Amino acid sequence: MNMGGPGQDVNEMSMQISFRMMNDTMKDCFGDCVTDFSSQQLSGAEQGCLKNCAGRSFSAMQLLSSLQEQMSARGQGGF
Predict the structure, then answer these.
(1) What DSSP letter does each residue of 9-30 carry, written as one string?
(2) 68 lies in some domain
């Protein structure tokens, strides 16, 4: 039973969505960037690819979050 009120549920749901998006990003970037499993270390190209992929994904998430906040503040409800 949740005694924290409706805000608690929204925060918990938001955290779950954030974790799911981060997990999906990591899986997608790993699948796109890591191609050589013959070494225990990532190559320089793989490291660079992962850094760029994750950076772009997190930038996009921040932009979408900002836009959703702006829409909610204007009473448009968000996505």
Answers:
(1) HHHHHHHHHHHHHHHHHHHHHH
(2) yes
Only one residue has tokens 């829409």, namely 71
Stated pTM of the model: 0.67
What is the spatial distance between Cα 39 and Cα 58, in angstroms, rounded to a whole number?
Answer: 28
- Residue 67, amino acid: L
**How many domains is the chain built from?**
1
**From the CB of residue 71, how many other CB atoms can be counted at a distance below 10 Å?**
13
In a domain, 78, yes or no: no
pLDDT, one tens digit per residue, over 33-61 is 999 999 999 999 999 999 999 999 989 98
Q: Tell me if 20 is assigned to some domain.
A: yes
Which range marks the domain in which residue 15 is found?
8-32+45-73
